Amino acid sequence: MTTMPAPLIEMLNALADPAMLLDDRGRVAATNAAAKDRFGAWVEGQSYISVLRQPGLLAPVENAFFSQQSGTARFIHVDGAVETAFEVGITPLASLLRNGRSPVMLIFRDVSEQGEGAAMRRDFVANVSHELKTPLTAMIGYVETLQGPAQKDEEAQRRFLAHLGQELSRMNRLVVDLLSLSRLEGQSRRKPRDRVDLVALLSEVVGLLAFTASDQQVELVLDTPERADVFGDADQLTQVVANLVENAIKYGRQPGTVRVDLDYVQREPVLRGPAWRMSVIDDGPGIAAEHLPRLTERFYRVDTGRSRQQGGTGLGLAIVKHIVNRHRGRLKIESKPGEGTRIGVTLPAATEPTLS
Ligand SMILES: Nc1ncnc2c1ncn2[C@@H]1O[C@H](COP(=O)(O)OP(=O)(O)OP(=O)(O)O)[C@@H](O)[C@H]1O
Ligand SMILES: [Mg+2]
């Protein structure tokens, strides 16, 4: 690998976007911090063909090498379940031309928020407005009743105030969930780096939900090894598990059993490495196959009436999916109508397991 002039390396490091320098033999001679963060440090010294691997990008890079033509290309980078679309600026460094080839600078601009993102946001605003309108309309009705027909009826007043309180707390939950989604969107490209023990986390969540479960006559069973470390954000992972266990209690069988398992996977094929798989399993009515692919959409519910009545916002699984993606993990929803549902979250393991 050719050593690049120091000023070039300094410039590379000054760039906020991921950038790499290819030497005149087509090897990745240097990457900046943003590129190491996105693509991994392993790319240095590799041939650009094995790093970039997408034909749309290879042709313009070759033009830059051999013909000193600059250009741009699209590049899709996949990390776990997160796909990022980049527009890559390809610039030959013609002043360093040697034997008919020049080094090439690649700068990756993240364009995944553009294009279809805009249409999705419009839909989202329409949905949010609708979700807010429903409780608001109900609340206006209750207030009118309190001011009119129920004015002299204490029993009716108590009832309508209780309804009012329910609608308000639902709106509050909705806003809290929306805020957490928007925060997550801002973080999606930053991997969490704290070491988190999933065993402690699962025990805590199961402990917190023990009362809700027994209230619904649901038995909560936790089965874990002694320790299971991942790199993660403990609050967000708690949110994931709480949501899945709450769903299993709410939509499962009552009385019934909810199991929370944690298993080690030697080599997770998609994550290409060792992983921990948390599974939340219920023995409830399950979910019909046609709904499965849509469950993680915002506001999607199988039975809108039932979910609303139970105070659900329909954002729970959307939040779960965002958090799992941010952790470069996988979310798998399996269900057999009449038998139950199993939701698995697989996260890259931070260490070898301690087997109990
Ligand atoms: N274990 C399950 N068994 C059957 N149906 C489920 C299960 N988990 C989720 N669902 C269905 O998926 C829908 C979406 O779940 P999600 O957690 O996103 O929303 P929610 O529970 O309605 O609201 P929130 O989580 O915000 O309180 C639910 O409304 C329910 O219809
Ligand atoms: Mg939920």
UniProtKB/TrEMBL annotation:
* Top EC class for this record: transferase
Where in or outside the cell it occurs: the entry states:
Cell membrane
SUPFAM superfamilies xref list? ATPase domain of HSP90 chaperone/DNA topoisomerase II/histidine kinase, Homodimeric domain of signal transducing histidine kinase
- The reply on keyword Kinase is yes
Quote the EC number: 2.7.13.3
Which transformation does this protein catalyse, written as a reaction? ATP + protein L-histidine = ADP + protein N-phospho-L-histidine
- Positions of region (Disordered): 336-356
**Histidine kinase domain location:** 127-351
Q: Which InterPro entries match?
A: BphY/WalK/GraS-like (IPR050351), HATPase_C_sf (IPR036890), HATPase_dom (IPR003594), His_kinase_dom (IPR005467), HisK_dim/P_dom (IPR003661), HisK_dim/P_sf (IPR036097), Sig_transdc_His_kin-like_C (IPR004358)
- SMART domains annotated for this entry? HATPase_c, HisKA
Under what name is this protein listed?
histidine kinase
